[in-house]
Amino acid sequence: MSGLPFWPHQASAYSGELDRLAIAFTVLVVLLSAPVFFLMVVFAVKYRRGRAANRRHPVNQRVGLEISWAVIPFAAIVVFYVWATRLYFEQHHPPSNALEIQVVAKQWMWKFQHPGGQREINELHVPIGRPILLTLASQDVIHDLYVPALRLKQDVVPGRYTSLWFNADTVGSYRLECSQFCGADHAVMGGYVHLMSPSDYARWLEQAGIDMSLASQGAALFRTRGCSGCHGAAAAVKAPKLEGLFGHEVPLSDGTVVTADEQYIRDSILMPHAQIAAGYPDIMPTFQNVLGEDDVLKLVAYIKSLAAEPPSGPRSQP
Amino acid sequence: MTDVPANKHANPHDIRDRGLSETPEQRASYLRAGHTLRSWFLTTDHKRIALLYLVAVTFFFFVGGIAAALIRIDLLTPQGDLLSNEGYNRAFTLHGVIMVWFFLIPSIPNTFGNFLIPLMIGAKDLAFPRLNLLGWYIYVIGGMFTLFVLVAGGVDTGWTFYTPLSSMFAHGQVVMAATAVFIVGFSSILTGLNFIVTIHKLRCPGMTWGRLPLFVWSHYATSLILVLATPVLSITLALIAAERLFGLGVFDPRLGGDPLLYQHLFWFYSHPAVYIMVLPALGVVSELIAAAARKPVFGYWFVAGSSMAIAAVGFLVWGHHMFVAGESMYAGAVFSFLSLVVAVPSAVKVYNWTATLYKGQIAIDPPFLFAASFIGLFVFGGLTGLVLAMLAIDMHVHDTYFVIAHFHYIMVGGTVSAYFGALHFWWPKMFGRTYPMVWGRIMALLIYLGFNLTFFPQFILGYLGMPRRYHVYPPEWQVWNVLSSTGASILGIAYVLPFVYLIWSLRYGPPSPPNPWGVTGLEWTVPSPPPKENFAETPVVDYPAYNYPLELEEGARG
User: Which residues in chain A have Cβ-Cβ distances shorter than 8 Å to B357?
Assistant: First the structure.
């Protein structure tokens, strides 16, 4: 269908299933509304004023009729509700083996960071045949990453990480758009997703290759921005140690317990006073005006890479 | 009006007088009860205030229409060549703000509701005539602020004012625009309050709740939403202004606020606001269909009850605007289901109207054609709303032209068609003159065709993946955009022409008898146009609404 501007490209098995859902639901909708259109015209002709017709009214069966035309279409629609909701839930459960790519949106560009440290702007190269998980962060206003060929979009909300995953199966370059109004150049905040075979992707990674992986870039920031002064192994200041932190529970000074996920680490860097680890003083300064969202994502990648290591110093009690 | 030739009832004093002079009814009517400007601008007569609204609302309809014309001309080509990016953003923001708050919300309630509710329930006026006038002035002040925003450089946030774009980043007159909407909200609240009290307290003897015309029921439901939802919007807009002016961190994440909180508050008002815009139209259509078929509306209590059900359930579906905004998937599942539930009462209405036509005496006059257009477009708009309520499909078409097409089918195809239908049905009552039926029929068809040509291609564009608020798009989508703009020019002409022949009819139209359509309803028992006090003596009602004679089969009951 590529020549006809009737139907968008399908670049994943999910796109195909979504189209089947949309078409099947359209058929139902036509079936439910056709009687109204048909009967309005028929009645307007047949019972036109002044035209002879049988207008004697039958015995009244009002309530039964009313209930049946309310309940039967509703029941049919609920079937599609289950189908659509199942697909939506799938989209909220990324597989654990997904390739993670970090996305930072800002007025008016998309920045992508690959785990190996490769970075690109407004172009995203990813392999087909394996799940890709995009972690989305915004530097300023709300944006929305939309790839019509994948039938997927997700708002990118400042202050929180959102995510989107897909498993593409068709090589090609497809439009990527911002679909949430984000200011002056919203209409041109787009680019392309290049879906490549795994071998082409590997080649691309190599030629785009740079010295350090994302986590290593995070480690460099960790030193140059002074994080290691307090959180490092040799630090004199009493600050929570970060080895083995990611994915574990952290007791807070207000008595609650949170899990140290990406969002918690981000918030702890940018809004350190909001959640204080129990037993530590509230002395960390905010890095809000020092680090961009892309830098924070690198630090998150670094701290995630420390998850496997055992705590090197005294840590808060579980 | 086919079987009531106008000339039979024309000015009895001079049969050749094509209305060049006043009829005796006009001379005794509210239109001539005072000739000074003061008698209009300080009037407390609900009918005169309705006309003040009619003029003001129609003015803003055309201002918003000019913005729409700019948008459609710019979209003729894939490059953004007519308007700059900033200019385009200002055009669609202004189009949205004006059409939603200065046309759609006040359109039917403040003109036809104001004019007709007292007449329909046998009252002399609304319960609070001075509040009614105050409401008009508040509306005009809000409108002035909007026009000021327009000349002072515009606003570039979209009518939705999403944060933190609106509160921290946008360069336009955000605070002024928010102030305009804040102000006009009080006009909505006063109108809703006035209608509720009027319908409760001023019904004439015998006008029980079960005898109210369905137009009154739907305005009652609308009024409840106006009173309960509008304050939420006012508070939310005040918070935006506070964040923008004083850095109050409610919505800005840098200050610890939450941008999604804004969306929850905004849609808690703005989804019910959709029903503020469409419920009065549903009431109009019930009247028009019953009048055209000369039959009682099929299933009176189901149609009346569905208005109340829509008003109630409409408060519980706001989250369906946020399926891809970062809302929890469980919240998404609940809001999706409730959005399907809220469609049921609308479907009940549509099926009941169709059943009303069965074995009716259908006159193919402008009111019927507008009502039939409404039903067709409303059904289509409603069903595409169900498509959007499907979570997975929404992930694809949310914030695309599919959404634009969907809500224009409801708001423009639905509400504006009903507005024009009401204008063509009650015009003889309001002014005492009739207009050429043939023009009305042609315009109804032209609006229907122009509308579909404008908005149907947008469903395809949306599914192809054209985001809303884009004026730069890939060249392969141009053909659909050209079709849409062509339809828009037809639609534009079809919206202007009725005002030509309607205004012509004010002077040259044949005088209208009290009941030109031969229908039921208290408003048709008084002269056209009605006298200042509406009823010479308070009517007493001892029959149901739509009391048309029916031929019944044996054993049947009405």
Answer: 39-40, 43-44, 47
- Cβ contact, residue pair A140, B471, below 8 Å: no
Domain regions of chain A by residue span: 13-91, 99-207, 214-305
Min Cα separation B175/chain A (Å)? 16
How many whole angstroms separate alpha carbon B360 and alpha carbon B264? Answer: 46
Question: A291 to chain B, minimum CA–CA distance in Å?
Answer: 13
Taking only the tens place, the pLDDT of each residue in B133-154 is: 999 999 999 999 999 998 998 9
Strands A123-127 and A190-196: parallel
Beta strand A257-259 pairing with A249-251: antiparallel
Neighbour order of strands in the sheet with A190-196: A123-127, A190-196, A172-178, A143-147, A152-156
* Structural domain spans, chain B: 25-524
Q: Which residues of B touch A28 (CB under 8 A)?
A: none
Residue partners of B297: CB distance under 8 A and separation at least 6: B214, B286, B289, B290, B303, B352, B353, B356, B545, B546
- CB-closest option in A57, A149, A179 to B400: A179
State which residues of chain B have pLDDT below 70.
1-21, 554-558
Contact in structure between A102 and A126 (CB atoms under 8 Å): no
Helix locations, B30-101, DSSP H: 37-41, 46-74, 85-97
pLDDT of residue B479: 94
Q: Kindly state the percentage of chain A with pLDDT values over 90.
A: 61
At residue A314, the pLDDT reads 44
Q: Does domain A99-207 have CATH number 2.60.40.420?
A: yes
Kindly determine whether residue B340 and residue A8, on different chains, have CB atoms separated by under 8 Å.
Answer: no
Q: What is the pLDDT of residue B15?
A: 46
Residues of A with Cβ-Cβ distance to B479 under 8 angstroms: 5
Kindly state which CATH superfamily the domain B25-524 is placed in.
Cytochrome c oxidase-like, subunit I domain (1.20.210.10)
Give the integer Cα–Cα distance in Å for A248 and A278. 14
For residues B530 and B118, the answer to whether their CB atoms sit within 8 Å is no
Alpha helix ranges (H) inside B294-364: 300-313, 329-357
Q: Is B523 helix (H, G, I), strand (E, B) or coil?
A: helix
Chain A residues with CB-CB distance to B363 below 8 A: 48-49
Query: What pTM, to 2 d.p., does this model score?
Result: 0.91
pLDDT digits (tens, 9 = 90+) for A238-271: 888 888 889 889 999 998 999 999 999 999 999 8
Record the tokens describing residue A142, joined without a space.
Answer: 């709300």
What's the confidence (pLDDT) of residue B554? Answer: 64
Are B399 and A146 within 8 A, CB to CB?
Answer: yes
| Cβ–Cβ below 8 Å for B392 and A84 | yes
Q: Given the structure tokens 């003061």, which residue do they identify?
A: B38
What are residue A127's DSSP bridge partners?
A196
Overall fold of domain A214-305: Cytochrome Bc1 Complex; Chain D, domain 2 (1.10.760)
In chain A, which residue's Cα lies nearest the Cα of B346?
Answer: A70
- Centre a 10 Å sphere on the Cβ of residue B64 and count the other Cβ atoms it contains: 21
ipTM of the complex: 0.89
Q: What phi, psi does A133 have (nearest 5°)?
A: -115, 120
Distance from CA of A272 to the nearest CA of B (A): 11
| Candidates A29, A53, A92; nearest CB to B329 | A92
Instruction: Measure A113 CA to nearest chain B CA, in Å.
Output: 21
pLDDT surpassing 80 at residue A69 = yes
Nearest in space to B207 (alpha carbons), one of B279, B119, B294, B289: B119
Which DSSP helix (H) or strand (E) runs through A165? strand A162-166
- In a mutagenesis test of the B interface, which of A4, A23, A57, A154 is the best target, namely the one with the most B β-carbons within 10 Å? A57
Question: Could you count the other beta carbons within 10 Å of the beta carbon of residue B13?
Answer: 9
- Say whether B196 sits in a helix, a strand or coil: helix
Partners of A132 in beta bridges:
A99, A166
Chain A residues within 8 A of B325 when measuring between CB atoms: 142, 155, 157
